[in-house]
Design a protein that fits this description.
CATH architecture of the largest domain: Sandwich
Order of helices and strands: EEEEEEEEEHH
Strand content: 35-45%
Shape: elongated
Helix content: 25-40%
CATH class of the largest domain: Mainly Beta
Number of strands: 9
Number of helices: 2
Mean pLDDT: 86
Low-confidence stretches: none
Radius of gyration: 16 Å
Oligomer: single chain
CATH topology of the largest domain: ATP Synthase, domain 1
Length: 142
């Protein structure tokens, strides 16, 4: 019996389908959820959400949120979620560069937590896009 997976972000369903395995990046590390998994609620960090099915996989960039497993049903409540094929890599690279610039300033008016979170989201989007064959994200050398 497969897992039924729902990914919900911004109060709308991003994805609702079956998978044989779900792999997610959590605050405690990367986990894999298989059918008949024990009930679980965990905090997601910016990273990949991979839904494995036979020969292929669906990959999404997740910017954080929660994952709940119960009776072969996986619900992901994400801060934001984006299917790999719809990621605008140049926009993600620009977001990464902005966040890195804010962190490099080390001024009192820079919100370090916000800049760090923005950097994590941008890196997750870039990594997911590259994982499914997107072009590598260039790094500016300062």
């Amino acid at each position: 019996m497969p897992l039924h997976v729902e990914v919900i972000a911004a109060e709308r369903v991003i994805l609702s389908e079956d998978a044989e395995v779900v792999v997610a990046d959590t605050a405690a590390g990367r986990i894999a959820v298989l059918p008949a998994h024990a009930p679980l609620v965990t905090l997601l960090v910016p990273g990949q959400l991979r839904l494995g099915r036979g020969e292929g996989a669906q990959v999404l960039a997740i910017s954080g949120g929660y994952l709940e497993v119960r009776e072969n049903h996986v619900v992901v409540l994400a801060d934001a979620a984006e299917v790999a094929g719809s990621i605008d890599v140049s926009r993600a690279v620009a977001a990464r560069e902005r966040a890195e610039a804010h962190l490099a300033q080390r001024q009192a008016n820079v919100d370090i937590a916000r800049a760090t979170a923005a950097l994590g989201r941008a890196l997750a989007r870039i990594k997911v896009a590259e994982a499914v064959g997107g072009r590598p994200a260039p790094r500016r050398v300062a």
